[in-house]
Design goal:
single chain, alpha/beta, Rossmann fold, 5-stranded parallel beta sheet, 12 helices, about 40% helix, globular
Length: about 375
């Protein structure tokens, strides 16, 4: 009877997991409350699905993965404290980075000092790769490349005059600066540029200034709240530019939930779309929808991909020594659900691609590049004063 019970217990264990094996622990803090909560909740779900899937397949090297997720309340100081806690108290084996460039920049000096590899799955600000860090590993395309595809569309549509607005956070400022530089490269004219301080509770005055400048295209470098407010301000003033691009926010399901049909025609950038069928992408989509009853955006997919990258690096060295895994990460060339992974000597992602999408008829369509296009981009007509 005793032997029968043992056999039954072994059958109940996930295939490949060693009975009683010490787990591989991975820590992350996310802004589950506060300014970045909409994005952080998506990332939390992505990490949790990866943990479930990897353990269901036997863990890593026969060891289960145990994920520690903390709420940093979207606060850089709390994030710094939590990463110290995860390293010194919880003794995690590996770390994923927090959401946002601001919080990631806050924790990297500490993790670098401790020679702790960090897979940066929630930040894209280029400044992170300009500080000489040796343990910071970028998972997706830096901000400086986000608007390139959109500007290519503008050139083909003969739309030359643009306005660039930024919110007061490092990612948005970095994105706005790089958008200005890219605009010059594409021969576009920046007719107006300004900063939206403190979230800009009202957007109407800024819209009036943009319209007065003669710009026919509006590029908003911000997050979900600003994207929604700006679209509503455009509606309120009965003015819509020939093209409106907003960073990050339009990828979230909440963008359409809050705006309904007003979401239509808005452009944005994504690093993942299930219509681009990278390995495991459809399975991830189906599992996410079945588990959380809504479609994921790219923030969830990037979190899942970070787990895939960590798994590949550990497998390649056959152990969890942080220095060997760090070296493996810098040499790794692998595929994930968001595409190809590979970094340069600074840790900057150089192989993963971006896609420009547009809300059309209540759903997102890929409009660039043409090789994976699911619909043609739609441009409006700039009303005359």
């Amino acid at each position: 009877m005793f032997h029968v019970v043992i056999i039954l217990l072994m059958l109940l264990l996930p295939s490949g997991l060693s009975h009683g094996a010490e787990p591989i622990t991975v820590g992350v803090s996310l802004g589950l409350t506060g300014q970045y909560s909409a994005f952080a909740q998506q990332q939390k779900r992505g990490f949790e699905l990866w943990q479930k899937d990897v353990n269901g397949r036997g863990g890593i090297l026969g060891r289960p993965v145990k994920l520690f997720v903390h709420d940093d309340k979207s606060d850089p100081q709390i994030a710094k404290s939590l990463y110290r806690q995860m390293i010194d108290t919880e003794k995690v084996d590996f770390l994923f980075g927090p959401y946002s460039t601001r919080l990631t920049a806050a924790i990297l000096p500490w993790t670098e000092k401790r020679r702790f590899p960090v897979l940066i799955s929630g930040a894209a600000g280029d400044t992170l790769w300009e500080r000489g860090y040796h343990y910071a590993v970028g998972i997706y395309t830096p901000a400086s490349d986000f608007t390139a595809g959109f500007f290519e569309l503008l050139v083909k549509a003969n739309l030359d005059d643009i306005a660039i607005l930024e919110t007061d956070d490092p990612f948005s400022q970095n994105l706005a600066w790089s958008a200005g530089e890219l605009a010059k490269r594409y021969g576009l004219r920046v007719k107006f540029a300004a900063s939206l301080k403190n979230g800009c509770p009202t957007m109407e005055d800024m819209v009036r200034r943009v319209r007065k400048s003669g710009a026919g295209v509006l590029v908003l470098c911000g997050h979900l709240a600003e994207s929604v407010k700006m679209r509503l301000a455009l509606k309120g003033l009965h003015w819509y530019p020939a093209a409106f691009y907003a960073a990050t926010g339009p990828s979230l399901p909440a963008f359409h939930t809050r705006l309904g049909d007003e979401a239509n025609l808005v452009f944005s950038t994504t690093v993942w779309n299930p219509k681009v069928n990278f390995p495991g992408s459809q399975r991830f989509l189906n599992e996410y929808v079945a588990t959380f009853h809504e479609r994921p955006d790219y923030h969830a997919a990037v979190a899942y991909a970070a787990g895939e990258v960590l798994n590949a690096a550990i497998q390649s060295v056959g152990g969890i020594d942080p220095e060997r895994v760090r070296a493996a990460l810098f040499k790794l060339d692998t595929m994930t659900i968001i595409g190809r992974f590979g970094i340069d000597r600074t840790g900057r992602q150089i192989r993963q691609a971006t896609f420009v999408f547009q809300w059309q008829n209540g759903k997102t369509e890929i409009v660039w590049p043409e090789t994976v296009q699911t619909a043609r981009p739609k441009f409006g007509v700039v009303p005359k004063e």
